[in-house]
């Protein structure tokens, strides 16, 4: 419900991508209004493999649950193609609802899918994606979960077909639309003009196929949500690569990395110790 409220306010919702529970907690600690659980990042962090349809529904739903267990910020959760037919999609939606997701993202690629900014993607027939959306709507029931319909048809059939699909996906019951990988700011404006009044998602991928714009510009164009799915993953990887290079060369400077006490403080270690002490104190009272 919090995500619906934020969207109703009209200000663009910036959602950095979380690839694990720690990155999700850091996003929340910095006050962002939403978290985007990226399939690209979860696949990399969990499997050490690329985003080409290798991760399972169970692994993704488990990650949703783990993130929602340690955060209160609304989670927009990637669910790829839904991980199977309509019955599989229905189960995925129910699992995401139980896990605590605020929104679930489904796409119209064939399975196995590819990251939206990779080459040689393929999409299913429009009717098959509509079946996916309807399965999600029915499985959601009366939960407040938002359904995000993503189309990758810009890469395979051109922008006009992506717009046609987007219109049909919204009519089928999707709450938000995600037209993946427009190639220019002009195309982004076309998308927002075609769906004025709808809730649209912009995907900002560093060195991806879409122009990399700031949140203020994206809001002016007409987007409701801006996701930055791989920004933290890329920056963390770069930092680790640099530190490993320095460590191997014997050049690590302690002042350039977070210290043990500071990390423990960020983790909330003292809070956990205090909780344990309160429990011990209560047990002591009952033992008298």
Shape: globular
CATH top level assignment of the largest domain: Alpha Beta
Q: What is the radius of gyration computed over CA atoms, rounded to a whole number of angstroms?
A: 21 Å
Helix segment tally:
13
From the 3D coordinates, which CATH architecture of the largest domain would you assign?
Alpha-Beta Barrel
Question: Remind me, CATH topology of the largest domain?
Answer: TIM Barrel
List keywords for this structure.
52% helix; alpha/beta; 8 strands; TIM Barrel; 13 helices; 2 domains; eight-stranded parallel beta barrel; single chain; 288 residues
3D architecture notes:
The structure is a single chain. The protein is α/β, with parallel strands linked by helices and 288 residues long. The chain has 13 helices and eight strands. Helices cover 52% and strands 13% of the residues. Strand 3 (75-78), helix 5 (86-99) and strand 4 (103-107) form a beta-alpha-beta unit. Helix 5 crosses helix 6. The chain starts with a helix and ends with a helix. The mean pLDDT is 95.
What layout of secondary structure does this protein have?
Elements: H1 2-9, E1 13-18, H2 21-29, E2 35-37, H3 39-47, H4 57-70, E3 75-78, H5 86-99, E4 103-107, H6 126-140, E5 146-151, H7 153-157, H8 159-171, E6 176-179, H9 185-194, E7 199-203, H10 215-221, E8 225-228, H11 231-248, H12 260-267, H13 269-287
Parallel strand pairs: 1-2, 1-8, 2-3, 3-4, 4-5, 5-6, 6-7, 7-8
Helix pairs in contact: 2-4, 4-5, 5-6
């Amino acid at each position: 419900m919090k995500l619906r409220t934020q969207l109703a306010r009209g200000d663009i919702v910036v959602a950095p991508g979380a690839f694990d529970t720690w990155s999700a907690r850091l996003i929340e600690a910095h006050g962002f209004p939403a978290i985007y659980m990226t399939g690209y990042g979860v696949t990399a962090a969990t499997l050490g493999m690329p985003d080409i349809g290798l991760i399972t529904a169970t692994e993704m739903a488990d990650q949703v649950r783990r993130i929602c267990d340690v955060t209160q910020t609304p989670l927009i959760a990637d669910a790829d193609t839904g991980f199977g037919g309509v019955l599989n999609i229905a189960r995925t939606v129910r699992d995401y609802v139980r896990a605590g997701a605020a929104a679930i993202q489904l796409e119209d690629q064939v399975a196995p899918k590819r990251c939206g900014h990779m080459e040689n993607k393929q999409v299913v027939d429009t009717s098959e994606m509509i079946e996916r959306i309807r399965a999600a709507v029915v499985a959601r029931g009366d939960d407040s979960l938002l359904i995000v319909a993503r189309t990758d048809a810009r890469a395979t059939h051109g922008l006009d077909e992506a717009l046609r699909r987007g219109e049909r996906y919204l009519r089928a019951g999707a709450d938000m639309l995600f037209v993946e990988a427009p190639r220019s700011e002009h195309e982004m404006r076309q998308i927002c003009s075609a769906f004025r009044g709808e809730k649209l998602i912009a995907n900002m991928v560093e060195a991806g196929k879409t122009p990399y714009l700031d949140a203020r510009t994206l809001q002016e164009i007409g987007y409701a949500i801006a996701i930055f799915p791989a920004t933290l993953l890329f920056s963390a990887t770069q930092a680790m690569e640099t530190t490993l290079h320095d460590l191997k060369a014997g050049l690590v400077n302690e002042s350039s990395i977070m210290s043990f006490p500071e990390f423990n403080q960020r983790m909330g270690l003292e809070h956990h110790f205090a909780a344990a002490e309160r429990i011990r104190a209560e047990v002591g009272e009952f033992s008298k």
